[in-house]
């Protein structure tokens, strides 16, 4: 089974497990999380061509090793904002208000590589905004980058992460539980020093300013580069290509 099939198969297994264990909290949570995110890309913006990607994104690649094509080892970094910086600022304010109400950020949802985060779907305003951006720009861009049908893209998980020079500064090298991953910068780079997504195999860091994003295959070894001043906010999202129609 290749990378293109693994995550769709994982979802099928989760659905079967839910039938056998309908009261299992972790299985139900995993299925529910993915369902709240948009899976209906806006065909009006189905104009994300290879030329658009080339004009708006820088790339860096590993040698394609045993992969079928070079795009399987390519990192895309936007040169300019793809999302409205003002709306990104509203997302930061909304999550901070949410945390002030509930008392703390989560630090244990990802047991192997924990982040200081809040699920995007935990804040209704952020979920609505993120789903709109999935349809408007994220799914069309990922579809064009990796030559896949954007209507088949699904979200495994999406969470808003906070890096702080005085607390969690960085994230160790790891691979994601995804077919495609992206990190969206949602506060200005002027508010922190350092940061970015570090790719171990090329010893290079991909970084963009607020509203920009970095997209890469989830199997690539990467980490969160340390910040040395201020606070950095990102949204991390894990995607896969479904082979099933929506119910």
Can you lay out the helices and strands and say which pair or pack?
Blueprint: H1 3-20, H2 25-35, H3 50-56, E1 57-61, E2 74-78, H4 85-102, E3 117-119, H5 124-146, E4 153-164, E5 171-174, E6 180-185, E7 192-194, E8 197-199, E9 204-206, E10 213-217, E11 222-224, E12 227-241
Antiparallel strand pairs: 1-2, 2-10, 3-4, 4-12, 5-11, 6-10, 6-12, 7-12, 8-9, 8-11
| Extended strand count | 12
Question: Separation of termini?
Answer: 25 Å
* Computed Rg: 17 Å
Based on Cα principal axes, name the global outline: globular
> Which structural class best describes the helix and strand composition?
alpha+beta
Q: Can you give the mean pLDDT?
A: 84
Helix content class: 25-40%
Major beta-sheet overview: 8 strands, antiparallel
Tell me the fraction of residues in β-strands, as a range: 25-35%
Number of helices: 5
Oligomer: single chain
Low-confidence stretches: none
- Topology pattern, helix = H, strand = E: HHHEEHEHEEEEEEEEE
């Amino acid at each position: 089974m290749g990378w293109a099939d693994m995550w769709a198969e994982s979802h099928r297994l989760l659905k079967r497990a839910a039938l056998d264990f309908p009261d299992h909290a972790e299985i139900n949570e995993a299925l529910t999380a993915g369902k709240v995110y948009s899976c209906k890309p806006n065909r009006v913006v189905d104009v994300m061509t290879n030329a658009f990607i080339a004009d708006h994104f820088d790339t860096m690649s590993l040698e394609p090793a045993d992969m079928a094509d070079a795009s399987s080892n390519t990192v895309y970094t936007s040169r300019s904002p793809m999302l409205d910086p003002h709306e990104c600022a509203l997302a930061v304010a909304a999550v901070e208000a949410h945390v002030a109400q509930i008392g703390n950020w989560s630090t244990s949802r990802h047991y192997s590589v924990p982040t200081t985060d809040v699920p995007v779907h935990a804040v209704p305003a952020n979920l609505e905004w993120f789903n709109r951006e999935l349809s408007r720009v994220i799914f069309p861009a990922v579809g064009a980058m990796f030559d896949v049908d954007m209507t088949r893209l699904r979200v495994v998980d999406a969470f808003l992460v906070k890096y702080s020079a005085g607390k969690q500064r960085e994230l160790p090298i790891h691979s994601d539980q995804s077919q495609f991953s992206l990190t969206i910068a949602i506060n200005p780079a002027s508010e922190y020093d350092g940061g970015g997504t570090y790719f171990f195999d090329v010893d290079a860091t991909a970084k963009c300013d607020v509203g920009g994003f970095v997209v890469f295959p989830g199997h690539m070894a990467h980490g969160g580069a340390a910040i040395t001043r201020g606070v950095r906010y990102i949204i991390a999202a894990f995607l896969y290509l479904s082979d099933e129609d929506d119910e």
